[in-house]
């Protein structure tokens, strides 16, 4: 790979969280018109969406001329050199806080770079899979 490609969370991920937080939020706002005590739930859903946006904005997947790197909100950037990659594919198992669409980049030294592929555009996952060839 010669050109650098950088990926961030797909806009569809923001839409999904917008629907998840927006529908109950809108219902809360409509309920507030009848009783002002419903502002608290509406604000909770708004805060939830704001957190989701911050969380999604922290996702980064970059392909440079010699390595792939990945960063998320609660994990620092990790980089793997292309020549150190042994295999790339879906993770065999996922933990309770991982997406079912977790990709595993396994290195020759036995380390693993686990990437939440669900938040990225399909093109990013395709580029990851190309690293296996």
Features:
three-stranded antiparallel β-sheet, 2 domains, 133 residues, alpha+beta, four-stranded antiparallel β-sheet, 29% strand, 3 helices
Strands in their spatial order, largest beta sheet: 1-2-3-4
Rg value: 19 Å
Tell me the number of structural domains: 2
Q: Summarize the biggest pleated sheet.
A: 4 strands, antiparallel
Give the overall shape: elongated
Secondary-structure element string = EHHEEEEEEH
Q: What class, by secondary structure content?
A: alpha+beta
Strand content: 25-35%
Q: Helix fraction?
A: 25-40%
How far apart lie the N and C ends? 12 Å
Query: If helices are DSSP runs of H or I spanning 4 or more residues, what is the number of helices?
Result: 3
Mean pLDDT over the full residue set: 90
List low-confidence stretches: none
Describe it.
The chain has 133 residues and is of the alpha+beta class. The chain has two domains: 7-56, no CATH class; 66-130. It has three helices and seven strands, in the order βααββββββα. It has a four-stranded antiparallel beta sheet. The protein has a three-stranded antiparallel beta sheet with strand order 5-6-7, covered by helices on one side. The two termini are 12 Å apart.
